[in-house]
Specification:
- The chain folds into two domains: 4-40, no CATH class; 44-104, no CATH class.
- It has helices spanning 4-19, 26-34, 37-40, and strands spanning 44-45, 57-61, 72-78, 85-88, 93-95, 99-104.
- The protein starts with a helix and ends in a 9-residue tail after the last strand.
- It is extended.
- The chain contains three helices and six strands, in the order αααββββββ.
- Helix 1 (4-19) crosses helix 2 (26-34).
- It has a six-stranded antiparallel β-sheet, with no helix packed on it.
Length: 113
């Protein structure tokens, strides 16, 4: 039996895969929808609002050079000291101009010891 939530999840998957079919895996999008991720997380274009300085966020970046590598997602923060750079979780400074969108990280799970 298909629930209302199933229908909304499928519509959400369809809306994203129409835009960028190669970048999204249907099961990941569907799982994210069921987790409530679509309501809590919204991509913000850096043209509308720059990444916050010295705050870890999820970043969508483009690559440069030939051959052009894949665009992707990383967790990083815009540097307060190296202007025009961001520090990613792999420990590298990268050009901030490559970041096109960002979003806050989700809340961490409530883990009880």
């Amino acid at each position: 039996m298909t629930t209302e939530l199933d229908k909304k999840a499928e519509a959400y998957v369809e809306s994203l895969t129409r835009v960028e079919p190669a970048r999204f895996h249907r099961s990941d999008i569907s799982y994210a929808y069921y987790c409530g991720y679509q309501e809590a997380q919204k991509w913000i274009a850096v043209s509308e609002q720059p990444c916050p300085i010295d705050v870890r966020v999820m970043m969508w970046f483009t690559t440069i050079g030939e051959p052009k590598g894949p665009d992707g997602v990383t967790i990083g923060k815009a540097s307060a000291y190296e202007l025009g750079q961001f520090w990613d979780d792999s420990g590298m400074y990268r050009p901030l101009e490559r970041v096109t969108h960002w979003q806050n990280l989700p809340k961490p799970p409530d883990v009880k010891s």
